[in-house]
User: What shape does this take?
Amino acid sequence: MVQKYQSPVRVYKHPFELIMAAYERRFPTCPLIPMFVDSDTVSEFKSEDGAIHVIERRCKLDIDAPRLLKKIAGVDYVYFVQKNSLNYRERTLHIEAHNETFSNRVIINEHCCYTVHPENEDWTCFEQSASLDIKSFFGFESTVEKIAMKQYTSNIKKGKEIIEYYLRQLEEEGVTFVPRWTPPSIAPSSETSASCKKQAVASAVVPDAALKEGLSSETPGHPSGVPEPAAGTPDDKLDADYIKRYLGDLTPLQESCLIRLRQWLQETHKGKIPKDEHILRFLRARDFNIDKAREVMCQSLTWRKQHQVDYILDTWNPPQVLQDYYAGGWHHHDKDGRPLYVLRLGQMDTKGLVRALGEEALLRYVLSINEEGLRRCEENTKVFGRPISSWTCLVDLEGLNMRHLWRPGVKALLRIIEVVEANYPETLGRLLILRAPRVFPVLWTLVSPFIDDNTRRKFLIYAGNDYQGPGGLLDYIDREVIPDFLGGECMCEVPEGGLVPKSLYRTAEELENEDLKLWTETIYQSASVFKGAPHEILIQIVDASSVITWDFDVCKGDIVFNIYHSKRSPQPPKKDSLGAHSITSPGGNNVQLIDRAWQLGRDYSMVESPLICKEGESVQGSHVTRWPGFYILQWKFHSMPACAATSLPRVDDVLASLQVSSHKCKVMYYTEVIGSEDFRGSMSSLESSHSGFSQLSAATTSSSQSHSSSMISRWRFC
Assistant: This one.
C-alpha cells in the first residue's frame, strides 16, 4: 500500500529571499538533523541573469534502524538524490527528492515548495508532499514502513525549527534583509547592496527605505501599514497556524490526513462540504484512517442532504409537546469551555413523548440539539481563543425507573444513538451521569453495545450524592453554574419534564396520515375488542424458558388480559367478514384464534391469572415460559357486574358490538420474544428497583403450573 503525506501550508513571516539564505545553510550538512551525514553536488546550473539556479545533490543519510536490519540489507547508509530549482524572478523554490538506495524495492518521492504568501509578498509559504511505496524488503516490509514514517515525521517537525535557527544565525551576523533579484540592467550597485545587507529592519512586512531605492518601479515594496492577514488560508489550503488555532495540536501525519481528505472532498464532492472541524471529527473517530473516514463521511453527507439537516435549525420548529416535556437544554459551559447540555432523563416521560410525537419528531429534535451544539462549539472557540470541538453532557437520573426501560422506547433510543454516532462523531467531550439508581445497570446493558468505545471512555458515572465529593462535579463545572436542582445556586431553565398527558397520544393511524416514518408503524399494532369477540395473537415458542414481553395501552374501554398455552396450533382465522374468527374495523383489527370447540384445561391452559385493565392504563409485563408450544395473548372485553347475567351468542355479540359503541374497546400493543439468558439479569435488577412511577403488579402472579416469572408495570395519568 502506498503511504502518502501532505503538509499544511507553513508560513514564515519573512521575505522569500531571506528564507532562501537561511535554507542554503543546511548544506552540505546540518547538525540539527543527525541522520543527514553529508551531501555532494552532482550538477549545478545558473542562468546568465542570475534568476535561475538549479542544483542537484546526492545526500547521505544514516537511518535510525536496527543494526540487524542494516546487516540484512547490506548497507550502512541510504542515499537520496535531491534537485532544487530556484527561480528568483518568480520567487519560488521547488525541491524534488527520491531514493537512490533500494530503488527497485522501495520507492520514495518527495516534493517541497517555497513560494510567496498570496496575501503578503513579504511572507513565505512552505508546503511538502511525499509518497512511500514498499514493493518488497526481505520480509521486513512492515518494519521498514514504520521506520520510514517515524524518521520522516521527526524531520518534518524539525523543518521549521531549522529555518528559524538559521534565521537567528543570520541576524546574529547582522543580515536581516536580502534584496530581491532584479534584471542586470537595473541592478543596484554593489555598495548599495552591501549597505542593504547590513541594515536592520524593524519588521519584514514593512520594507526598508533602502529597498525602495534599490528596486525598480516594476517591483515595488509592499505598501507600509498593510494589515496582517487574518488567521486562515486561501480557500483551497490550510496553514499550520490556522490548524493550531482552530483545530488543535496535530501530529504531522494527522495534519496530512486532514488536508488530503479535505482536498478529496473539494475535488469530488459537489455541494457543501463539512467544515474543517467536522472533517477532523470523522478522522479522529476512525483513528485517522483516511479510507474509513472518507466512507462514513460520504454516507453522512448523503444523509444530511437527503434530510436537509443543514437547514434544520432554520426551518424546523419543535412541537409544543417537546418544548413542554423534553427535560433537556443548554446551560453555560464547563471548565474547559465546552458547551454544557443538561438532560434530566429521570424526569422525562420517554414513552409519552414517543406515543405523542412518534420517533421521527424525537429524532429531529435530537438532531437540532446536535446542530446547535456544533454552532456553540464554533462560538466558544472564538470566545476562549482555543479549539473547542465537543460539548459536555450532564445527565441527571434522579427518578429513573422501570418506565424508562420500556422496550420500544429503548429501541427508539438505540436508533437515535446509531444516527448520532454515525453523523456526529467525536462531538461528546464528556458525559457526566449523576444520581444513577439501581435500575441504571439494566439500561446501560441495553444501550452500551451501541456506543463507540472511544465515546464510552468519556463517561463518568456517579451514584447517589457521590458527585458532590472529591472528583465530582466541581472538577468539571464551575461552582457558580451548577444547576439549582443539583444543589447549586444557578437557576437552570431546562424544562422539568413530567408525564405527557394521554390526551396528547396519537394512534398509529393518525401518525400514518401525517405521512411520517414512525417507529410505531412497525412496532405498535392497533386492535379492536368487542363484547364476545376478544382479540388474540399467537406466539410460537421453540425453546423453553424463553421470555414473552408485552406492552400495551388501553385506549378505550376496560379489558381483561389473559395468556394461554396450547400444545397444538390453533387453526388460522377465517377471512369471512361475518365469522367469529376475524373482523376488520376502521379502528383496528380483531382476530380470534381459540376455537369454540376447545375446552379450557383440555385443549389449552391458562398460564397467568387474568388481569383487569382499565381505560387509560399502560401495561408492561413478561412471562418466562416453561414449555415449548403455542402461547396465545388475549385481550377480552370486560363486562360490568350488572351485565354479567346477559348471555348472547358470540356471533350475535359481534353484530351487536358493531352497532353499540359502548361494547367496543381499543388497545395498542407491542410484543417481543427474547432468550432468557438475555433477560434474567434485567429481571433481577428491575425487581430490586423502586420508583414512584411503576410498581410490580399484585394482580399478576406466577403460576406454579407454568413456573413463570412475570412482571407487570401499570400506571395512570392524572
Remarks:
- The chain has a mean pLDDT of 79.
- The chain has 20 helices and 25 strands.
